[in-house]
């Protein structure tokens, strides 16, 4: 068995470039990377990943072009996995398991494509659902610690602080939540649930094909 190769990347160095046809996957050992994509002058940040996270897994499995850029935010060490290693592995497992892995990758690729068409709408839908969940998980508590809640939302939704702040303020304008320096107060839990459902239904309709 071939020993895994550990590669080092300097801050600002690309691990993966959008639209590349490479299939290498990386498991991060140390350091952090930033995920983003560009469309003309528009720049979409997808957040950061760190030790233990995996990047490049979709192209690694299905061989399609990369969907985003991955750049080192600091010095990074990552275990490099090649498609040849994946092919050797799939040759040793049952055909049904290999087929299932590839099918899951294909379905995830479709889901990613849908999200890319409406990234802000998907983020807002997720935001409404998460705020609803946080309240119910706290026994119906309507006031959430802003710092801790924002940290959790950013980690789950993989959005920049400015994008999250803008989405929260849009919910405040609809009188669904109230923002203060220290808290996020849910003013209309039922309305928040309804907003999440309407966004979900709108996205499903827009993505029918």
Number of helices: 7
Structural class per helix/strand content?
alpha+beta
* Spatial order of strands in the largest sheet: 1-8-3-6
* Biggest beta sheet summary: 4 strands, antiparallel
Rg over alpha carbons: 20 Å
User: Mean of residue pLDDT?
Assistant: 82
Strand content: 15-25%
The outline comes out as globular
What share of the residues lie within helices? 40-55%
Elements, N to C (H/E): EEEEEEHEEHHHEHHEEH
Question: Termini, distance in Å?
Answer: 44 Å
Number of strands: 11
What would you note in describing this structure?
The protein has helices spanning 57-62, 83-90, 95-117, 119-137, 146-157, 161-173, 189-206, and strands at residues 5-9, 14-16, 25-30, 33-39, 42-49, 54-55, 69-72, 76-81, 143-145, 177-179, 183-186. The chain is an alpha+beta fold and 209 residues long. The strands form three sheets. The protein has a four-stranded antiparallel β-sheet. Strands 2-7-4-5 form a four-stranded antiparallel β-sheet. α4 runs antiparallel to α7. It is globular, with a radius of gyration of 20 Å.
């Amino acid at each position: 068995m071939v020993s895994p190769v550990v590669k080092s990347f300097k801050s600002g160095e690309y691990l993966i470039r959008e639209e590349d046809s490479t299939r290498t996957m990386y498991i991060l050992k140390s350091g952090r990377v930033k995920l983003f994509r560009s469309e003309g002058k528009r720049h979409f940040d997808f957040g950061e990943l760190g030790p233990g996270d995996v990047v490049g897994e979709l192209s690694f499995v299905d061989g399609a072009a990369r969907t985003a850029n991955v750049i080192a935010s600091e010095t990074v060490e990552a275990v490099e996995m090649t498609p040849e290693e994946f092919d050797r592995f799939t040759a040793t497992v049952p055909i049904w398991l290999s087929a299932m892995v590839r099918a899951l990758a294909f379905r995830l690729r479709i889901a990613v494509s849908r999200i890319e068409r409406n990234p802000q709408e998907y983020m807002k839908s997720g935001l409404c659902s998460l705020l609803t969940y946080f309240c119910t998980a706290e026994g119906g508590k309507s006031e959430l610690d802003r710092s801790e809640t924002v940290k959790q939302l950013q980690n789950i939704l993989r959005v920049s602080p400015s994008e999250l702040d803008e989405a929260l303020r849009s919910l405040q304008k609809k009188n669904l939540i109230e923002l203060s320096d220290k808290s996020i107060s849910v003013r209309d839990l039922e309305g928040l649930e309804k907003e999440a459902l309407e966004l979900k239904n709108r996205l499903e309709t827009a993505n029918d094909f």
